Amino acid sequence: MKALICHKNGSIELIEKEMPKLQNDRDAIVKVTLSSICTSDLHIIRGCVPRFVPETVLGHEFVGEIVEVGSAVKNLKKGDRVAANCETFCGECFFCKRGFINNCEKGGWELGCRIDGCQAEFVRVPFADTGLAKIPDNVSYENALFVGDILSSGYFGAEMCEIKKDDTIAVIGSGPVGLCAMMCAKYMGAGKIIAIDVNVLRLKIAKNQKLADFVFNPLVCDIEKEVKNLTENRGVDSVIECAGAKDTFEMSWKIARPNAIIGVVAMYEENQILPLPEMYGKNLTFKTGGVDAVHCEKLLDMISKGMFSTDFLITNKISLRDIKKGYEFFENRSDSCLKVVVTS
Of the residues 129, 139, 249, 322, which has the maximum number of CB atoms within 10 A of its CB? Predict the structure, then answer.
């Protein structure tokens, strides 16, 4: 089968590789129908993910059809259409039982990082009975593609902020995760959502999709001043930081009101400074970490009922044989590009 691997030096190569085989009775083999290229894949290529194992097949966000299951997998069968969780988790350890599946003692971010991922024709999924969710009959592969990562990450960011009815929420970054965070914040009861980004087209998408009530570009306005004008000089009730750019962490705590929660979903490539003397007295709460994608079945049900739609995120499609071109396009970040989807 064809598969995209990443070498130790950060170069990527499409190779012929043996078909994956079941290694455990909770495994499944999935024929990949659609996968995506994610910013996390770029972090790997740039050498910013220490846990990455070189020569691993990249990719962790995908949907497909089950072709084989291990004997212990009772909730799935051959032929089932499934959406994959970006996290591998056993469901039984100390952390899993508390919903912290990113810290599973037997898993975590494995697919496309420490074990072969989904940018291939077939993929082995460990703990398939927890990490794969059946796609409802009225939901297409395209509808379900982002459930296990991008949409779950947006939900995770909004959930961290403990949003109350009519809260004013700022979302820094209007890329795919940020747009999903806005969607989820609105679902959780936010009264006003402020989208912040330097990309004019992405701000326009946030507005046109009715995900944000206000959009601001820090290149053309004073973000702190604009936020204070909208919040009676207090600052926002919560911030979801999805950008991970040079100055966005600092922006997040500066625009937050005293006693606000800042949910950091972004993955940074450099250390960030927490200037405690400067923020002393604001009594801020910071929450951060890899996504605990525990709501995949719920999100699929909401998509099935028409409550959520992430279809607009698919801006480009490319075949697996041309995936290196897809990476070049995604990394160069055309203003109109949100998600590049790979077809097998």
Answer: 249
pTM exceeds 0.90 for this model: yes
- Pair 183, 308: CB distance under 8 Å: yes
pLDDT tens digits along 45-91: 999 899 999 999 999 999 999 999 999 999 999 999 999 999 999 99
Q: 273-306: per-residue pLDDT in tens?
A: 999 999 999 999 999 988 999 999 999 999 999 9
Q: What is the DSSP string of 291-315?
A: -----HHHHHHHHHTTS---GGGEE
CA dist 219 → 198, 224, 243, 250 (Å): 6, 12, 15, 15
Q: Are 312 and 205 contacting, i.e. CB atoms less than 8 angstroms apart?
A: yes
Question: In the sheet that 236-241 helps form, which strands lie side by side, from edge to edge?
Answer: 214-216, 192-196, 168-172, 236-241, 256-264, 285-288
